[in-house]
Structures are given as structure tokens and as C-alpha cells.
Amino acid sequence: MFKGVLRKGSIVLASTVLAFTLAACGNNGGNNTGNGAAEGGNNTGTEAVKDLSGEIRIDGSSTVFPITQAVAEEFMNINNGVNVTVSEGGTSTGFKKIINGEIDIADASRKVKDEEVADLKAKNEEVVEMPVALDGITVVINKENTWATEMTVEELKMIWQKDSKVKLWSDVRPDWPKEEIKLFGPGTSSGTFEYFTEEINGTKNESTTNYTPSEDDNVLVTGVAGEKNSLGYFGFAYYEENADKLTAVAIKETADAAAVAPSVETIGDGSYKPLSRPIFIYPLKSALAKPHIAEFVKYLNGEEGQALVEEVGYIKLSAEDYKKNLDMVK
Predict the structure, then answer these.
(1) In the chain, how many domains are there?
(2) Which residues face 77 on adjacent strands?
(3) Same domain, 145 and 196
(4) For strand 21-22 and strand 250-252, is the pairing parallel, antiparallel, or unpaired?
(5) Is 105 exposed, middle or buried (0-12, 13-18, 19+ CB in 10 A)?
(6) What residue stretches are annotated with the PBP domain (predicted)?
């Protein structure tokens, strides 16, 4: 099994698999998973595919990155003629790169946009939308913060909305400390940023600029862990990996609603609202015609890939959802 360490991003679950194909784009920068070397293996849960060779280029969401990286390492271990490079430049960057023909698969923590589909179509290309896991965007505070362990969506909006006037914790609730809030969050090319701003602020991509942004979730973890008065957000998998350093905020949809903390159970059953979401891969339809790429995607959606989804801290989909993905490869 995968022996790597979760380095970036978070996990997202996809609740339904869409059978239609869509367009996508690329991304920049990243991490090379390296080449494995082993023999034999079971790529798709049936028989091993012999003599596979070629390159597979993946870029995009830092949230999906741990999944595709783990799958890449295991896939290369049983297919030593295949080299898979996985990078994490952010969802929007991934879509840009796939549009430009720089990668074969885009990792995404949001759905492809109509304009991205159109850009691909203009190049006689399209992508196949495949949800691969469920994730819950987790709002986190420093371990020394004992006052903000529960917050409403409206309170989060007060802090994160564009042109927010909130500076101190006491600006949110008068009985909270008169201390400046230090904010940490994903950069603007992140699908997590887009999803969070739409669900919390009501308008996607509109946010206060008074925060420290990073596409590297480890930077966000370090920032919140190192500052008592901090607040941040990123994927659930990264919270779970760092639960000894951070506290997850329980979210109340309304002031009268019960506070719900993120967990495998609450994300899986959808009760962690409104920040539970699916995450995706978008392979080029033309790339799936290449045997080594088709087998990689089958491996990711097969029993081995599903086990890796859970191993790196994400919530896997139903067996039927993965079957739909596999049917699209065929």
C-alpha cells in the first residue's frame, strides 16, 4: 500500500458521477511523484495489464493531489514503464494547462466552467468529469482558541466577505477577545477558495483580501498552528492529519441550527453543511484512448484506488459511482 505522507490539499467526495464530458484546463508548478519499479500487479481489480509504457501528466487541485499522488506511486510500482508526474498548482491552473494541452488529467475541487468547456471545444477537445471522493472544507482555529469552537455561517461571512470591517474577534461577538484575527486561506486559483466564497459569502471568488493566501495547505496549517488568534480553512484531510495542532470549528447553518463538526460521518451523510463537497479528476477524452492513461484511471476508480482514497484521509464514494466512472473509460 501507499507509504507516502500527505503533503498538500484536502480530500473531496463526489456524490454522483456525471456521464457527460466537459472541458478543462491546466495548472503550473508541482511535485513529481517519481518512478516506481516493480513487477506484476493488479491494475483494475481483474488482470494485470502487461507492457504499459508512457507519460501521464496531472496537475490542478492541491486538495485532490494526495489522491492522485498516492495512486500514481502505487500504479508505477506495478507498471515500471509508466511515469506519472503529479503537480498541484490549483484547480484553475490545472484547467488552464489541460486547455493548453500541457497535461492529460486535471485535478479539480470544483466543476469545470462553461467557458473552460468552450475553450476546450475550440481545440476539438473535451474532458470527462469523474468525481473521486468527498471532502468537507474545514474551518480551523488555534488550539489555544477556546471561544470560537462553534460559529454560524453568518459570522464566517462577517469575517471573510469582501470589504469586511471585522478586525477583532470582539467585532464578531462582543464577549470574544479584543484581539486581531489573523486569517489564512487558499489562493484565488484554488477550487476550495471558489467553493468556500460561494457557500459562505454568497458570491464565488469574492473575499476579503486581508488574509495570508497559499496554494500549499501545509503553509496554512503552520500559520494557524503558530498564531493564537488565527482562523483558516482547507480540506478535511489536512485537518485530520494535523488535529493535534488545530481545532475544527463546528458550523451552524443558522443561529438556531445545531452546530455540526466535520467528520467522516457528517461529511459522508451531508449533515456538515454547507461545506461538504465532491472533488474530481478530469481526464481528456482523447487521453483515455491511450492504454496507459486508461489503465491509470481504471486503477484510481478500482478497489485499489478506493482504498487509497480512504488511506490519505478522504471519504470514498459509493460503488455505483465508481462503476459509472469505469463505464466512461470503457
Answers:
(1) 2
(2) none
(3) yes
(4) unpaired
(5) buried
(6) 49-300
Output the pTM of the full model: 0.80
Contact 249, 147 (CB under 8 A): no
| pLDDT tens digits along 276-314 | 999 999 999 999 999 999 999 999 999 999 999 999 989
Tell me the residue range of the domain where 258 lies: 138-274
Q: Return the C-alpha cell found at 200.
A: 459562505
CA dist 258 and 168 (Å) reads: 25
Among 257, 274, 291, the domain boundary falls at: 274
Query: Across the strands, what pairs with 59?
Result: 106
Q: List, as one string, the DSSP characters of 309-329.
A: HHHTT-B---HHHHHHHHHHH
Residues 117 and 146 in one domain: no
pLDDT digits 0-9 by tens, 17-39: 333 333 333 334 444 444 433 33
Q: Say how many CA atoms lie within 13 Å of 41 toward its Cβ.
A: 24
- Residue 226: alpha-carbon gap to chain centroid: 24
Q: How far apart are CA 154 and CA 274, in angstroms?
A: 12
What gap in Å lies between CA 282 and CA 256, rounded to an integer? 39
How far, in whole angstroms, is CA 30 from its chain's centroid? Answer: 15
User: What's the CA gap between 317 and 276, in Å, rounded?
Assistant: 13
Is there a single domain that holds both residue 192 and residue 121? no
